[in-house]
Amino acid sequence: MRERQSKRIAILGTGLIGASIGFAARAAGATVEGWDPDRRALRTAKRRGAIDRSAKSLAAAVADKAIVVLAAPLDEILKQLPEVFAHAEPGALIIDCAGVKVPVVRQAVRMLKRWPTVRFVVGHPIAGSERSGPAAADARLLKRRVFALYAPPQPGRASAWTAATRFARLLGMEPVRTDPQSHDRAVAALSALPQLAATALALAVAPHAPRSWARIAGPGYRDTTRLASSRFLVWRAGLEANRTQVLRSVARLAKQVHGIETALRRSDWRTLMRIFSGAAKARRRVYKG
Q1: Given this structure, which CATH class describes domain 183-286?
Q2: How far are the Cα atoms of 49, 102, 151, 152 from residue 179, in angstroms, in the given order?
Q3: pLDDT single digits (tens) 179-212
Q4: What is the pTM of this model?
């Protein structure tokens, strides 16, 4: 596929991630066509310059594109996959951006048996914000962030890996290979659990917070509750699809909170010191920033 053709991209879903991908792809010289059942979001994405033009239908957006990006919520992506495969060009790369991978792979494997000339990779841009929608989109959200990738077995698997890796780099992201099961376990702990912990923390503080606290709330509260501003609709499908892994992560958090509560009740400062020290070491192991 010639270079000019390889930069014809369709983005299905023009919310925060879809529009941010549009900004990054256009900055890299790609031509981007967007489609979204939410016409208001589509108009905002077009007005802000995240896409070059709007498609009238999903089929029209997918036709003649080298790369098709599914950036809708998980439940919508699962509904869209059959139509996307049916209208994709032979050799086109289809890549999704859902936050949970196992159900997407399960359905895509069935699609690949019917349309073996299409290349498919599940992907997850590890980026985002507590804000949502195309008005909050920005190519800088993606810069130097990880794009988790997995190419399920298919006739053109090696080519699919290569195309997805190039696409991630086109966006300024770091492609990282993973498998769906490991990805979903990691996302439950590293994404869903922080969201739920921030939600719980905000709720734990609010009933006891007089208005005067708004004047003295500092960066500790701000940083640890930032995700509490997220919309539930953004999370529902992912929490439902990955519920078992999320529940395991929540149970581990509850165990740690119980240990802290017990140590405080007993004025067991040595245990609390070990907890603090262990937490600092644990954070350094997982997060290098």
Answers
A1: mainly alpha
A2: 34, 9, 9, 9
A3: 999 999 999 999 999 999 999 999 999 888 888 8
A4: 0.86
Residue 207 is predicted with a pLDDT of: 83
* Nearest residue to 242 via CA among 75, 82, 79: 75
Which residues pair with residue 122 across a beta bridge? 96, 150
Regions of the chain where pLDDT drops below 50 = 1-5
CA distance linking residue 108 with residue 115, whole number of Å: 10
CA dist., res. 202 & res. 225, Å (int): 6
Q: What is 3-178's CATH superfamily? A: NAD(P)-binding Rossmann-like Domain (3.40.50.720)
**Angle at 17 (CA atoms; ends 14, 23), nearest 5 degrees:** 75
Q: CB neighbours of 191 closer than 8 A, spacing ≥ 6? A: 99
Which pLDDT does position 70 carry in this prediction? 98
